[in-house]
Recover the amino acids of this structure.
C-alpha cells in the first residue's frame, strides 16, 4: 500500500460508515468476493440499509450487542452459485448442512451456529470460510491442520496454491486502495457502490 493511501486512511473518520465499508468490504464492492463480514455500531444499521438499498448487495445481521453489530454482506446470486459448487456442497454437507437447503435456510443455520459459538456454547463454525468465499482446499486444510502449518497467511490461511492466493490478496489490496482514493476524491459511498454494481451486472 502506498504512503499516500496510508496517509489518507490515517486521516479517515473511522466512525463514518462510508470509511468502514471501504476498508472492510472493498473486495466485495468491486466484485472480487461474494461476501464479507461487516462490523459496525448498531446506530449505523439504518444508514447501511439506505446505502445498499439501490445496489445488488444485501446484508444479514449475525449478532448484535449494545455496542457492536456483525453483519454478513453479500451478493445473492454469486454467493448462491459459490455455495452450490460441488466441493463447497461437500464441505457443508460434512458439517451437517442439508444440500437441499435454500440460501436463506443455509444462512439462518449459519447464523444460529455463529451465535452459539459467540456465546461460548459450541466450537468454531468452520463453515464460516465457505460462506466468506474462501477456497475449499484452504477451508479443508484449516480444519485438518487445526489452523496450524499453513503455507501463507493473508485474508485467510493458505494451504494450497500459494502463488495464486497471493495474487488474489494483492487484487484485494488494490481494490481497497482504489476505493479509498475514490472516497477521498469526493465520491460518496453510494456512488462508488452503484458504479461497481453496474459493472458487476454487465459482467454477469
Amino acid at each position: 500500500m502506498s504512503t499516500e493511501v496510508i496517509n489518507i486512511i490515517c486521516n479517515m473518520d473511522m466512525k463514518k460508515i462510508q470509511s468502514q465499508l471501504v476498508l472492510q468490504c472493498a473486495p466485495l464492492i468491486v466484485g472480487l468476493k461474494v461476501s464479507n463480514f461487516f462490523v459496525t455500531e448498531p446506530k449505523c444499521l439504518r444508514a447501511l440499509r439506505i446505502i445498499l438499498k439501490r445496489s445488488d448487495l444485501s446484508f444479514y445481521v449475525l449478532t448484535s450487542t449494545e455496542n457492536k453489530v456483525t453483519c454478513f454482506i453479500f451478493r445473492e446470486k454469486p454467493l448462491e452459485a459459490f455455495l452450490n459448487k460441488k466441493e463447497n456442497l461437500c464441505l457443508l454437507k460434512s458439517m451437517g448442512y442439508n444440500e437441499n437447503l435454500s440460501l436463506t435456510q443455509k444462512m439462518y443455520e449459519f447464523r444460529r451456529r455463529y451465535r452459539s459459538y459467540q456465546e461460548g456454547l459450541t466450537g468454531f463454525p468452520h463453515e464460516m470460510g465457505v460462506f466468506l468465499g474462501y477456497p475449499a482446499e484452504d477451508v479443508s486444510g484449516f480444519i485438518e491442520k487445526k489452523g496450524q502449518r499453513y503455507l501463507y497467511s493473508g485474508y485467510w490461511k493458505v494451504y494450497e496454491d500459494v502463488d495464486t492466493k497471493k495474487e488474489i490478496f494483492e487484487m484485494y489490496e488494490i481494490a481497497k486502495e482504489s476505493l479509498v482514493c475514490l472516497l477521498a476524491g469526493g465520491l460518496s459511498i453510494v456512488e462508488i457502490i452503484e458504479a461497481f454494481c453496474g459493472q458487476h451486472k454487465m459482467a454477469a
Remarks:
- The CA atoms of residues 34 and 169 lie 15 Å apart.
